[in-house]
Design a protein that fits this description.
single chain; mainly alpha; 3 helices
């Protein structure tokens, strides 16, 4: 019988995954992975079977490793910010 991960371990994995998802420089990727993280862990929260919970946890650990690598690549090749994102208040020489 597989022992399910502790509540603290699941919360730590959730925080790490959410932090990594928010580190994407691309607006669309960032929002998608934040949504997916919340959806994945909402499903884990509702799970009652310890075996399925352990499998979900292990899968989430693997996905976190992939997400971290993807975030680094996305940060390396990140483009300009979109109009829907918050813009910094940088003044150009032509501003009065």
């Amino acid at each position: 019988m597989a022992t399910p991960p502790s509540r603290k371990a699941i919360q730590g994995l959730y925080a790490s995954t959410l932090r990594t998802a928010q580190s994407f420089s691309s607006y669309n990727f960032r929002n998608y992975f934040v949504w997916r993280t919340e959806d994945t862990f909402r499903g884990m929260q509702a799970e009652q079977d310890p075996i399925k919970l352990s499998q979900s946890y292990n899968e989430a650990v693997k996905e976190l490793a992939v997400l971290r690598r993807s975030a680094v690549v996305n940060q390396l090749y990140g483009g300009l910010r979109l109009a829907v994102e918050e813009q910094s208040n940088v003044r150009t020489p032509g501003d009065t």
